[in-house]
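Translate sequence into structure tokens.
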Amino acid sequence: MTGDAPHLRADFDALAAIGADPAGGWSRPAYGPEECAAHEWFAARAHAIGMSVRQDAFGNSIARLPGADDLPVLVIGSHLDTVAQGGLYDGALGVLAGLEVARRIAGDATPQARPLEVIAFRDEEGRFGAFTGSRAMAGQLPEDALARMRAADGAVLGPAMAAAGFAPARADAARRDMSGIAAYLELHIEQGPVLEAAGEPLGVVTAIAGQERFSVRFTGEAGHAGTTPMTQRHDAFAAAARFADRFREMILAEGKSSARGTIGIVKLSPNQGNVIPSEVTLGLEIRDISAQLLADLAARVAVIATEAAEAMGVTAQCRRSYGAAPVPMNAGLISVIEEAARAAGFAAPRLPSGANHDAGVIGALVPAAMLFVPSVGGLSHAPEEHTDWPHIVAATDVLESVTRRLLGARDIPSC
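Result follows.
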């Protein structure tokens, strides 16, 4: 064990000075000056410990310790961008922990067998569309991404990248041959309450939940709020409200306690206090690590929407807007993490990740594993986001142990 990990602490303090928002928290939007400054800082720190550093066409920063050229590289990764007024730990922890592990290994007299890379991805938080950097590396961006992907403030991906010093000619300009990556590791805050409630300093992720998103539109008939009898109304909002209640009941009753369902968008027209709503559009999502359960719940959305619409004398239209399959973490790597945790005296319980991560993008193509550390109060994406320092040190030590084992092995454990 490494005690308080003073070099890692110093890195946290240095990064905390980049993008500190006067209104609270940290704001490092993708391809903005603050995120670029964070990547420049990362490169300088990596160079200082003897790593080579390059940026690919989409600005992903890749720091590398050399090893045997005939062996695929081991990658530790995460991101440095934040949501507006976000926390210090989300994403940054994984990059800094990877940098700390590389620092310790770089100091060894005996070089490791395979190369090690620490990657700081761009735009994980989705200013232009979630996981822009890792999806670019995986070759999963749409062909028109540079011209069509937009931020909420209207900024377009291509021009924003150009302003930051990157001007790829094609959306696949950063695509990487994934056969050159032996495995991917990521340390991240849990962003939920499970580990803290269990009193555990770290956990091992079993899978990253898949997602199904829908737009559900209820169309009725506008009318005067004071003169139209209740029994003669075709109230689109009444149907939407009934659907929302049935949707929650469905997730609770049929979701096997693991599924999550959220209605996060409500658009109402004409949105006047004295007019019966004629149209309501809901944006919703369902998440689970079981592909079958996810499909079953998704199939029920249109059914309960139709039932709610018929009950209120309106019509319903249901459109699937997005889908992503669950990504299981590699069983062999999970076992390696659990062995390292037990050797350090930690139980390291298994738990799913309801949130997606760069590990979900890269892990769909190469063996991947994640460690979680507790989030105090389950808070994330907020200035109050916090993880106790002893938990960070413990998880970094376990990550180091796992990294050393995988660097010294010619074959990566598989599922």
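Note: The CA atoms of residues 128 and 155 lie 8 Å apart.
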